[in-house]
Amino acid sequence: MGIEIERKFLLANDEWRAIVVRSERIAQGYLSGSAAIQAGVVKCSVRVRISGELAWLNIKSATLGISRQEFEYPIPVTDAERLLADLSDGALEKIRHHVMLDGTHFEIDEFLGENAGLVVAEVELSHADASYPTPAWLGLEVSDHVRYYNVNLIDRPYALWSTAEREGKEVSAC
């Protein structure tokens, strides 16, 4: 069984851009939407992701917090394209920047389209209380704010958020 332990942060500034190792464009969509997850109808999200010439099917438990069950399987790009076009609840696009700092890998997602303007950093940890660098560019932690979950960004994109929501304050149910 795969377990993902991940913390998510807003970015305080753009200083991270100077240490980007590589970047990739990603398109992803969900075969089970956020409304079903929030209603407790389903116990997991099922995601399809395409990055370049690679694609994956990802299943993640629908639990709050930094630790979730996660399973990921490579699939043919043509299958992923068909799943996104025919069976997903919508898709989002982002550029994922990979940053290494003091031996720690940060993934910084810069969202596009209706989520343009949203930039978040994620760091995967070996255990919940593992230490990690906290550079000046790492801002407010939003790991427990469900509005920042990718599955929710399809149903309620960043363009629709209030100023308070954009600052990481909980205002709406999403």
* End-to-end distance: 29 Å
CATH topology: Hypothetical Protein Pfu-838710-001
- Mean pLDDT across the residues is 89
SS-derived structural category: mainly beta
InterPro entries: CYTH-like_dom_sf, CYTH_domain, NeuTTM/CthTTM-like
Pfam families: CYTH
Protein name: CYTH domain protein
Give your account of this protein's structure.
The chain is mostly beta strands. It has one domain (3-166): Hypothetical Protein Pfu-838710-001, CATH 2.40.320.10. Helix content is 14%, strand content 42%. The protein has helices spanning 34-38, 77-86, 150-155, 163-166, and strands spanning 3-11, 20-30, 44-51, 54-61, 67-74, 91-101, 104-111, 119-124, 138-141. The protein has an eight-stranded antiparallel barrel with strand order 1-5-4-3-2-6-7-8. Strand 6 (91-101) and strand 7 form a beta hairpin. The protein is globular. The two termini are 29 Å apart. The model has no long low-confidence stretch (mean pLDDT 89). It holds the Pfam family CYTH. InterPro entries: CYTH-like_dom_sf (IPR033469), CYTH_domain (IPR023577), NeuTTM/CthTTM-like (IPR012042). This is CYTH domain protein.
